[in-house]
Amino acid sequence: MLKPNAIILHKTRPQVQQEIQACIGCNECLIACPAVAEPITIDVLNRETQNGPISGPVSRFARACYQCGACVAPCPVGLHRDAMMLWLKIRLLDSQEEE
Ligand code: SF4
Ligand code: SF4
To answer: In this structure, what DSSP letter does residue 73 have?
Structure first.
């Protein structure tokens, strides 16, 4: 059972898509992220979070994301990159199962 103060990160696919559409591409979430190990652009990350093939750098970043939440507070428009990354992880798992 969840503790009363538990943080629920999960968002539905439509909610994540809404957040991606609201993203202004400022890059603050990636600057704050301790798991970024190679150059990734927000437009590619946003696109590949939603559909299409997932490139090597984005799939490595998706695996490296450990849901620490450091990307949330810096977002100037109140978006949740951590929830977007959870969806990207799910997409990655789905695409691997299809191979
Ligand atoms: S939740 Fe993932 S994307 Fe966000 S700062 Fe942490 S490791 Fe980076
Ligand atoms: S900090 Fe927010 S608005 Fe800026 S790129 Fe990240 S998700 Fe988009």
So the answer is: T
In testing the pocket of ligand 2, which one of 21, 40, 42 has its CB within 8 Å of the most ligand atoms?
Answer: 42
Q: How far apart (Å, rounded) are the C-alpha atoms in residues 51 and 30?
A: 20
Element (H, E) at 60: helix 56-64
**What local confidence, expressed as pLDDT, does residue 37 receive?**
94
By alpha-carbon position, which residue is closest to atom 1 of ligand 2?
A: 75
Place of tokens 């696919």: 13
Q: Inform me whether the pLDDT recorded for 61 exceeds 90.
A: yes
Q: Spell out which residues line ligand 1, taking CB within 6 angstroms.
A: 32-33, 35, 65-71, 81-82, 85
Assess if residue 68 is contained within a domain: yes
Asked if residue 61 is part of any domain, the answer here is: yes
Question: How many structural domains are present in the chain?
Answer: 1
Tell me the one-letter amino acid at 1.
M
